[in-house]
Amino acid sequence: MFRGSLENHLFRKTATPLPWATRMSIALGAAKGLACLHNAERPVIYRDFKTSNILLDSDYTAKLSDFGLAKAGPEGDETHVSTRVMGTYGYAAPEYVMTGHLTARSDVYSFGVVLLELLTGRKSIDKSRASREHSLVDWVRPKLSDKRRLHQIIDPKLEGQYSVRAAHKACSLAYYCLSQNPKARPLMSDVVETLEPLQSGGGSDGAVVQAGGLPDYRVRRGLTGN
C-alpha cells in the first residue's frame, strides 16, 4: 500500500505523528474489516491482528493484509475452534494462548491492543521501558477507567490536540475489548458503532454508562452478562 503499515507510522522514529482524527479513522477502518470477516456467511477469524498487518493507502484508509493465519470460525452449535496457538505475542487473547480455543472475541482482544497502541503511541511489548511497563496492556489497563489519569495514557505526540470526551470513550472501548472474560467483550459490529461518532472528536451518549464511567456493552445486542 502507498503509505505502508500502521506500525511504521506509529513507531518509526522519523515518522510524522498521526493526528487524533487519522488514528480514529484507521481504528474504524480496521474494525470494519474485522466485522466484515466475522459477519460473513461463513465467519472468519483473522487470528493475527496487529499494527504491521494494517496497511494504509494514500488517504490513510486502513486495509487488512496477510491472511495467512486466518481460520474459519465455529459453525452450528460449536462455541470455538480448537487450533494450534499461533499469532504474535502481545496481541493474542489470553484464553487462546492458554487453551488454543479460538473465537471471534479473540480478534476483539487483539483489536483492543491495537487501539491502545493508537491511543498511547506505545508498542504492545516494549522491553526498552521499565519492567512494569514492558506489557502495554498490563501497564495501561488500571488507568483506562479513570478519567483523571487520561493524560498519563494518551500519546504525548498529540500535544493535547484531541477531544477529552472522545479519548475517554475510546479508552472505555479498549477496556472492554481487553476483558479477561471473552463473553464480556463487544462484538466487532458494536466496536464499529462506538467508533463512528468519534471520528469528529466527540461522540453521542449512545452507550449506557455505569457508575464507574464506562459504557456497559453487556446490554447491547449479542452480548451476555457473564
Largest sheet, in brief, is:
2 strands, antiparallel
Query: Remind me, CATH topology?
Result: Transferase(Phosphotransferase), domain 1
* Secondary-structure element pattern, one letter each: HHEEEEEHEHHHHH
The helix-and-strand class reads mainly alpha
Classify the beta-strand content into a percent band: 5-15%
- Enumerate the spans where pLDDT stays under 50 for 5 or more consecutive residues: 202-214, 216-226
CATH class: Mainly Alpha
Tertiary shape: globular
**If helices are DSSP runs of H or I spanning 4 or more residues, what is the number of helices?**
8
Kindly, what is the distance between the CA atoms of the first and last residues, rounded to a whole number of angstroms? Answer: 41 Å
CATH architecture: Orthogonal Bundle
Major β-sheet strand ordering:
1-4
CATH-defined superfamily: Transferase(Phosphotransferase) domain 1
The number of strands is 6
Estimate nothing, just give the exact number of structural domains: 1
The Cα radius of gyration reads 16 Å
Helix content: 25-40%
Mean pLDDT: 85
**Oligomerization category of the chains in this entry:** single chain
Describe the structure concisely:
The protein is mainly α and 226 residues long.
Q: Care to describe what's here?
A:
With 226 residues, the protein is mainly alpha-helical. It has one domain: Transferase(Phosphotransferase) domain 1 (Transferase(Phosphotransferase), domain 1). 35% of the residues lie in helices and 6% in strands. The protein contains 8 helices and 6 strands; from the N terminus they run ααβββββαβααααα. Strands 1-4 form a two-stranded antiparallel sheet. A two-stranded antiparallel sheet has the order 2-3. Helix 2 runs antiparallel to helix 4, helix 2 runs antiparallel to helix 8 and helix 4 runs antiparallel to helix 7. The longest helix is centred in the first third of the chain and has 19 residues. The N and C termini lie far apart (41 Å). The C terminus is likely disordered. InterPro entries: Kinase-like_dom_sf, Plant_Ser_Thr_Prot_Kinase, Prot_kinase_dom, Ser/Thr_kinase_AS. GO terms for molecular function: ATP binding; protein kinase activity. Pfam families: Pkinase.
